[in-house]
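Risk register update: the risk of archive-format incompatibility is retired. Evidence:
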Amino acid sequence: MFKRFKNALLTSKKQTVSTVIISLIMAVLYFVCIHFRDFDTITGMYVAKEIALKYILKIIVLAVILFVCINAVRVFFTLRGEKIGKESGRKHRLFFFGSWAFIVGAYMVWILGTYPGSANPDSELQFRYYLGLTPWSMWHPPLSSFLMGSLYSIGKAIANPNFGFFLYQLFQTIAAGAIFSYAMTKLIKLGISKIYAILGIAFYSLVPMFGAYAAWVEKDFLFAAVFVLCVTMLIDVVLKKSISVSQMILISLVTAVCSLLRNNGIYALFPALFVLMFILKGRNRWRVFICMIALVGIYGCFTKVIFPRNGIASTSVSEVIGVTFQQTARYVNTYPEEVTEEQKEIIAKNFQSYDVMKNYDPKINDPVKIYYNHSDPKGYFKVWGQMFIKHPLTFVASYINGAYGYLAPVKADTGVYINSRYDGFLSDELGLKDGVKPETRQRFINYLNGSNVKFPTKYLNMPGLYTWVLIGMILIVCGSRKKEILVLFIPSFVTLLVCTVSPLACAMRYALPIVLASPLLVGIAMLSYKKGEISESK
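Archived output:
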């Protein structure tokens, strides 16, 4: 094994250098993110020479550990790649249905144990849209709102409001279970060990937060599952470098549905199709191009024509540029004496009042973002540019402070919770009533909350861990001969970039697509070291 490890280092000097650089960056980010998590600044890292030297030593040690781990995984994948062959196709169907049933059963424990389920303010607003209590808006995806409301209405008509709430959970549980099982079965068909696939199924079914997400009436879990389906469907196209007409139609439809289930879906999927188009040749390239056109066309048809004509308001640009508001607010609060009267007037014009900048919270942008009124965006960005040129490091600090939970594994956050009682909108408008004993519900609440502090779920609940896994797998695939497989990592990487400019500094539900795609992408990285062509067994 040591000889293999040594050979791995000597095989590609360029690969070794890039791994050293990335390992060092990850190590620096880890300690920087810890400081932003605890103090909202990194001043404490260099306040004294002794402290700075101590951190430099820690960074070097962690960088070495990361470098060794990445190369150890590369060696393991190389060894496994020599043994990967075609699995017998006879038991694939049994594995798929067996794992599907297992995942559904595991999620049903959470659904029945917290019956009729839980909701958050976002999903409550989506129900308000559907019930006509609030004007519809694309702030939350109309398709998701319609799906929630329709299943609730059907269940309510059949039995009662509780059953209507339950129907959505059942729907997303069955869909997610089938998708996760399909993804792991796909890996087996391509030659990955069944042991790895079983570990993947265990991850999907036994990590507490996923059961809680299944029992949560909210848009994120279903979207993340369909996201995994999109990546899985692209595997054959990438490996075979060809796409059939039926694949073209299915990929077009599924990617369009995924994009309509969450507003950032299209930004994650379109780049992957765009790069894939240049990998394929001839008519296959044209078919991928048709997929891109279909995705943009269907998405545009709904968001620019169908939704507006039905009175559904468009989203605000503040969702996209909220990170710039945080940077401006940090500058204003850090250097108030340097803000000119003209800059104050422009800021006040765009945010109703200059004093809104005092609402600045480094870890969430809503206290400032909600006051943006689009009055003078050109003037605002002129001020933003002036401030950036004067104190660029303040802007960098604001960015990291608002994204530390995604950049490194420094904080556990399930992003999901269980309602302890039903009151307000849930009881008054939806008519929900507690369907289980309070002590039963509390056990699930305690178990979910405890997963944030207990090993190993504490680390599995850290969004930043999956960022490191993603970066590590990308590095490993870069060292293989099948670099075209990197296309399959693009949706997760783009989602990571979106997370870093999201409203919260650490929110698992935003990173959920990356998390749920991780077992699939690790398996794909392993396949990149398989000798010869990768083909699917029948």
